[in-house]
User: What shape does this take?
Amino acid sequence: MDHKNLRYWSGEAAKWAEEYHANLRDRPVRPLTTPGDTVAKLPAIAPEAAEDMAQIFDDFKAIVPGAMTHWQHPRFFAYFPANASPASMLAEQLANAISAQAMLWQTAPAANEMEEVMVRWLRDALGLANHFTGTIHDSATTATLSAILTMRERALDYKGLSAGLSGQPRLRLYASAQNHSSVDKGARLAGIGQDNLVKIATDANHGMDPAALDAAIKADIAAGYKPAGVILCVGGTSIGACDPIAACLKIAKAHDLYTHVDAAWAGSAMICSEFRGLWHGVDGADSVVFNPHKWLGVQFDCAVQFLADPTAQINTLGLRPEYLKTQGADEINNYNEWTVPLGRRFRALKIWFTLRAYGLSGLRTRIRNHVAWSAQVAEAIAVLPDFHLITAPVLSLFTFQYAPAGQDANTATANLLEQINNDGRIYLTQTVHDGKFVIRVQVGQFDCTEADVMMIPAVLNELTKSD
Assistant: This one.
């Protein structure tokens, strides 16, 4: 395989991709496969001699697509989307062809400077204040870890980096139970520990209670602990919960705590000004993350972290040995110093292609459609026999339960979910809310239509009528 052959096989791959996407509706969203099926189709050891690319490509077609969950399927309503618009796919091909390691400005000047501009484009598109700058990570998990590490070092006056955590004050972080598990992971990996992540009580709207936050911080100070930071959520993964950002930030600032807002999914909706009330006050945060790969059509992986002032994070994560210096350019942004990895991909290119190919207006239309269709399908499910909405739509996410008379609702809902996903026409997932096993519906796939979305109540009605 050389570059001349690459040209031919890239063409074949593009033809296959066009057909794959054109026929996705004919495939089950989740594959009808069992653990070990793919392993059984692969040789136990790598080949000694080179194999013909035609055979490799045929094997790909025979083995891989039928054993994949199809995230780009227009009836993928599970988790949150990992959208990949065609323009983003094209940009990723070009970035792969260049294959730059964009760790420093001098190793990839265009990638570095485009990242700076794309963060600014997205900041303005989301209506954030112009004091924010930022960087691109692989995922919100990494951005949140970066923020938690920054909280740790800021609280310890940056002594943890050199002396370690032994003998330091017991640090405390604060978040609600509606935050993503990446917050828990960040507390663990940062050496702060799960037991020191304080889960704050929520209010009737499932957002963090500011008074409870204040009380928890004061209690920890009285106990001799060292509060380090507050992590807030906008559009929690389970049911879409949103913390009252302005009120919680006021409490955090009163205690001089670093703050991070996780808006990984819901942040994309803020390109529509009518949804910005969900994160009112966000301009007062120190750090904000959202994932363009979730709802804007920018191919996974791509998470943008906005920083009110990057100094604390650079002081935490930055390391500049002599061999990573750019001579004569000490003040230039080298984004590896803003993130955990040294190695960095050229992620800004797919943002640039996507925003230009669809425009903010076109992306707003998609998001507004998804929100409207979600409300429509929630209403349709609510009138089906034995179905109950558990949480109302937050943007395009809501939950429901199936509770036929004489049956345990949790068991009946779990059994129905298995039927739904084995049926294959739609794909949904579950959560547990207030002790209830519920099914989540999240509308957001890039190419879904109203007809795709309205298949949800049709499938539910059909499957439960046969009970």
User: Anything to note?
Assistant: The chain has 16 helices and eleven strands. The two ends are 55 Å apart (CA to CA). The chain has a mean pLDDT of 93.
